[in-house]
Amino acid sequence: MQKLERQNQERLAAVYLDPTAQQLIDALDRKTSIRWEDLPNMVEGKPHDILRSVVLLAGANLCEASPTRLRLSEYGDKLLATEAEQVNS
Prior knowledge:
Elements: H1 2-7, H2 9-17, H3 19-30, E1 33-35, H4 39-42, H5 47-59, E2 63-65, E3 69-72, H6 74-88
Antiparallel strand pairs: 1-3, 2-3
Helix pairs in contact: 2-5, 3-5
């Protein structure tokens, strides 16, 4: 996991600096997957901002996009779990 974080550090920084990407991470953390048509109801922002955030998350290996859905990747799930542990301790 640390090796992946080092490899994706610049991409993760872009994700953390993007407020729409942060909303999308929060939404994905609560759901197993999100249908594309449901994204505007779950994340505030213009459609192009939401799509940019999806690209940022996918580029940082935090999510996987299929033709119908968006979901956390295994790496994204582990990273969120690690962050949750750090907050709770």
